[in-house]
Amino acid sequence: MIILKGASVSTGIAIGKAKIIEKEVLQITRKSIKDHEIETEIEKFEKSVSHVLNDIDLLIKDLAQSKDHADILTTHKMILIDPEFTSKIKRSISEELMSMEHAISEHFNEIVDIFNNMKDDFFSQRSSDYEDVAYRLLSHILDKSTDRFGNLDENSVLIMEDISPSSVTKVFAKNICGLCTEKGSKNAHSSIIARSMNLPMLVAVHGLLENVKENDNIIIDGNAGKIVISPDKKTIGKYSKILEQQKKEIHKLKKILNIKAETSDGKKIKLMSNIEIPEEIDQVIKNRSEGIGLFRTEFLFMDADEFPTEEQQYQIYRKITERCAPEPVVIRTIDVGGDKLSKLLNIGHELNPNLGCRGIRISLEYVSVFKTQIKAILRANTKGNVKMMFPMISCVSEVLKAKKIIEECKSELKEQNISFNPAIGIGAMIEIPSAAITSDDIAKECDFLSIGTNDLVQYTLAVDRDNETVSDYYQPSHLSVLRLIKMTIENAHSHNIKVAVCGEMASEKKYIQLLIGLGIDELSVSPGRLLVIKNEILQIDSGKAEELAGKIFSALEGEK
Known about the structure:
This protein has 560 residues and is α/β, with parallel strands linked by helices. The protein is built from 22 helices and 16 strands.
């Protein structure tokens, strides 16, 4: 039995047989044509493009599982009908006497190289889109009609080096039970499509292809982000029970889709979603989320060659806001360390970036970057219910500085005669012990607070949550952590503002009753966990939860 770790694209369990599909490389020879063949070659090119466009239209009509899925396939159509693409291929054919397959291959290779050289995970999905379109077009031209996925069925766990967006669509139609790749990113278009289909999938599994053999028994654990190769009987039995329970739960959860999150004794808990990229909005809408409690904006900045403009940010925030309206969208300002922006800001090496210039600190240090994001958020607030939240707040003075900059941004937008909505809710992330301890002062200056339990646990207990060596020390229910959460809730309520929990504790069923007992008002969870957590809320009596929280505190106090 071998266990490998990877990045989980979507939650869930899959048990099946490994089906290894090797990457198919189309052999394109450098072939020239004669002058008298130019017109025929261009005509064949146009017909080939038309054929592939029709294929994509059929996929959109028959298989697209969501608006974002359809949008990704539409993007592939736009690549094919791009006038620059068609004119360049025709020029290569008519002026350089290239065969159309040679011209197409050369064109797409150049574009893919450009994206790959950006060394940016966000742009890698663009690279795979162009590779996908090139493969579609060239396989049609070369009459590669063999279905690589012909032997797949509902018992198949697909094992590949990487997978294109269109291939995810094809294998989903085969009813495979899971998918695992050695490369890839959880934010790539292929991953987004798999997630919209609720297909258990892992990416970036190092050593996958060298450890898996055809027809090996495979378990994908999308909840824990691991793949089990050739599991023993005990492990198969364990996961078979989990899978059976998962199927029953999915059927049960569909029945509560349109029910509001409310405890059995009538306490309303606002249940929202955390998202990392815009494409996740479909799942948010599909699961009837009451808004977005945490929109992480880091994808806009990570390893980029230049900072996103105000207009680029505005367009993204606007689309999300319009889709969610009238429900709230809480946009968290940039929350990365200087190590992630070193290429753009020329920041020197930090020995411990987690304790360095990151979160609100980097925003207050580089005010022009901060202002660009604030202005985009203020402008998006004209399209719905937007709130702004600051990460890694350690004391009230940082909130005051940020609010002052917001007022400056409002004045500048007004002077420029740019439309914006000044009535925007301001919140702070409580994820540092000092913020929780001074949450009384912070609450006076905010419209809401949101507890980021991941970092709060990490900083309170001095435990790196990604370090397996000390993983046993990472305890969300540690007395010190619970005291800080309780203190934050009480201080917020004393100033008549609400508190949310947006960290991993909010997505784990075992902590929901405790959090409700402590008095939490809102929960923000990953979209795939929303119905699971809603079902848990529906079973809870808030009065009994409060009693339980008191007993837990008493028990923990007694252990001191």
